[in-house]
Specification:
Blueprint (H helix, E strand, L loop, with lengths): L3 H5 L8 E2 L6 E2 L4 E5 L12 E3 L2 E2 L9 E5 H9 L2
Organism: Methanolobus chelungpuianus
Pfam families: DUF2180 (PF09947)
Protein name: DUF2180 family protein
Length: 79
Protein backbone atom coordinates (compact mmCIF):
# COMPACT_ATOMS: atom_id res chain seq x y z
CA UNK A 1 0.00 0.00 0.00
CA UNK A 2 1.22 3.52 -0.77
CA UNK A 3 0.86 6.69 1.30
CA UNK A 4 -2.32 8.58 0.41
CA UNK A 5 -0.83 12.03 1.01
CA UNK A 6 2.34 11.28 -0.97
CA UNK A 7 0.34 9.92 -3.89
CA UNK A 8 -1.49 13.26 -4.18
CA UNK A 9 1.94 14.77 -4.94
CA UNK A 10 2.91 12.02 -7.40
CA UNK A 11 5.29 10.37 -4.92
CA UNK A 12 5.47 6.61 -4.46
CA UNK A 13 6.07 6.09 -0.71
CA UNK A 14 5.24 2.91 1.19
CA UNK A 15 2.65 3.04 3.96
CA UNK A 16 3.83 2.35 7.52
CA UNK A 17 0.48 2.90 9.29
CA UNK A 18 -3.26 3.33 8.84
CA UNK A 19 -5.16 6.33 10.22
CA UNK A 20 -7.55 5.11 12.92
CA UNK A 21 -10.14 7.74 11.91
CA UNK A 22 -10.34 7.68 8.09
CA UNK A 23 -8.41 4.52 7.20
CA UNK A 24 -5.89 6.20 4.89
CA UNK A 25 -2.49 4.61 4.56
CA UNK A 26 0.28 7.00 5.63
CA UNK A 27 4.08 7.09 5.58
CA UNK A 28 6.28 8.22 8.50
CA UNK A 29 6.23 11.80 7.23
CA UNK A 30 2.42 12.03 7.13
CA UNK A 31 1.40 10.49 10.45
CA UNK A 32 0.91 11.73 13.98
CA UNK A 33 1.16 9.26 16.87
CA UNK A 34 0.04 10.60 20.22
CA UNK A 35 -2.43 10.19 23.02
CA UNK A 36 -5.80 11.43 21.88
CA UNK A 37 -8.75 12.48 23.99
CA UNK A 38 -11.14 9.82 25.24
CA UNK A 39 -13.51 8.94 22.42
CA UNK A 40 -17.17 8.27 23.05
CA UNK A 41 -18.75 5.18 21.55
CA UNK A 42 -17.09 1.88 20.81
CA UNK A 43 -14.52 0.66 18.36
CA UNK A 44 -15.76 -1.57 15.57
CA UNK A 45 -13.11 -4.16 16.46
CA UNK A 46 -12.47 -6.14 19.62
CA UNK A 47 -8.89 -6.06 20.81
CA UNK A 48 -7.32 -9.08 22.47
CA UNK A 49 -5.11 -8.35 25.46
CA UNK A 50 -3.40 -11.69 25.27
CA UNK A 51 -4.06 -15.37 25.87
CA UNK A 52 -7.52 -14.95 24.31
CA UNK A 53 -8.70 -12.43 26.92
CA UNK A 54 -10.68 -9.54 25.44
CA UNK A 55 -9.63 -6.00 26.38
CA UNK A 56 -12.13 -3.80 28.14
CA UNK A 57 -13.15 -0.55 26.45
CA UNK A 58 -11.32 1.44 29.14
CA UNK A 59 -8.08 -0.37 28.32
CA UNK A 60 -7.82 1.21 24.86
CA UNK A 61 -8.48 4.79 25.90
CA UNK A 62 -4.96 5.65 27.00
CA UNK A 63 -2.91 4.17 24.19
CA UNK A 64 -1.24 6.23 21.51
CA UNK A 65 -3.24 6.29 18.31
CA UNK A 66 -2.04 6.95 14.76
CA UNK A 67 -3.82 9.59 12.72
CA UNK A 68 -3.12 11.12 9.35
CA UNK A 69 -2.29 14.83 9.45
CA UNK A 70 -5.71 16.03 8.15
CA UNK A 71 -7.58 13.97 10.77
CA UNK A 72 -5.18 15.10 13.50
CA UNK A 73 -5.75 18.75 12.57
CA UNK A 74 -9.52 18.26 12.60
CA UNK A 75 -9.32 16.54 15.98
CA UNK A 76 -7.18 19.34 17.45
CA UNK A 77 -9.72 21.95 16.30
CA UNK A 78 -12.44 20.21 18.29
CA UNK A 79 -10.78 19.77 21.70
Amino acid sequence: MKCYECSKNDKNTDTVAICIVCGRGVCKQHLVREDTPVWEGEYSIRLKCGMGVECKYEDVQHIKKILCIPCHEALKENY
